[in-house]
What does this fold into?
Amino acid sequence: MIKPSDILSGGEVLVTLDVKNTGKIEGKEVVQLYINDDVSSVTTPFMQLRGFQKISLARERQDLYHLLSLLKTYPCSTEI
It folds into this structure.
């Protein structure tokens, strides 16, 4: 969960995660960062893709990855 104190100047947030390949062969994966707004005054999508990175991991290897995402706020309009 991202808290307001986690947001960097400029509205960016840095997410760090461990990814482990438990298989016996090299693997490729796309790490994806999704967000949702639990406390919104307007209806927002349940999940919004905010970042992704294609990675390659050697067999039985674990690495640390960082995703930097800009949490933009989009103006909402009730006008038709």
